């Protein structure tokens, strides 16, 4: 069939790396959502138990943490392991695929540190009203 790629939902003319299509957008949404990047970054440092992650991320609910970890696990970025101890605990660790995101996340984190002051100036000017930039 002309005009389609072998990947469902991606036309050949959209298969270039600069075009974000449905499946890519969904994956980006899942790793860059409110908690995804923070969880992946934390798990790149070391495996963590569920409750450790819950304590580390102030404001995350048990439901949100569970949903985010399940999405990351489904995408092959995180693996879940039940620890055989009393009481039973669950540990999450980064997978080799998830580890490939460590460098881009560190670059993004460095960018925010380098440019935060400038961004805050723009925010303040914007909040003051039009024509203040």
Please characterize this protein's 3D structure.
- With 133 residues, the protein is mainly alpha-helical.
- Strands 1-3-2 form a three-stranded antiparallel sheet.
- The protein is globular and about 60 Å long.
**Largest sheet entry:** 3 strands, antiparallel
Task: Report the C-alpha radius of gyration, rounded.
Answer: 19 Å
- What is the residue-mean pLDDT, rounded to a whole number? 87
* CA(first)-CA(last) distance: 51 Å
Q: What is the helix fraction of residues, given as a range?
A: 40-55%
Short structural description:
This protein has helices at residues 22-31, 36-45, 50-56, 62-74, 96-99, 102-128, and strands at 48-49, 78-83, 89-94. By secondary structure, the protein is mostly helical.
Topology:
Layout (H helix, E strand, L loop, with lengths): L21 H10 L4 H10 L2 E2 H7 L5 H13 L3 E6 L5 E6 L1 H4 L2 H27 L5
Antiparallel strand pairs: 1-3, 2-3
Keywords:
6 helices, mainly alpha, 133 residues, globular
């Amino acid at each position: 069939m002309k005009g389609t790629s072998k990947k469902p939902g991606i036309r050949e003319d959209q298969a270039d790396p600069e075009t974000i299509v449905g499946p890519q957008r969904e994956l980006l949404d899942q790793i860059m959502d409110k908690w995804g990047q923070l969880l992946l970054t934390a798990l790149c440092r070391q495996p963590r138990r569920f409750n450790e992650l819950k304590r580390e991320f102030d404001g995350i609910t048990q439901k949100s943490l569970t949903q985010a970890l399940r999405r990351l696990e489904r995408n092959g970025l995180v693996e879940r392991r039940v620890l055989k101890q009393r009481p039973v605990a669950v540990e999450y660790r980064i997978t080799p695929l998830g580890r490939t995101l460590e460098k881009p996340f560190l670059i993004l984190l460095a960018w925010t540190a380098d440019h935060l002051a400038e961004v805050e100036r723009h925010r303040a000017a914007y909040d003051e009203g039009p024509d203040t930039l």
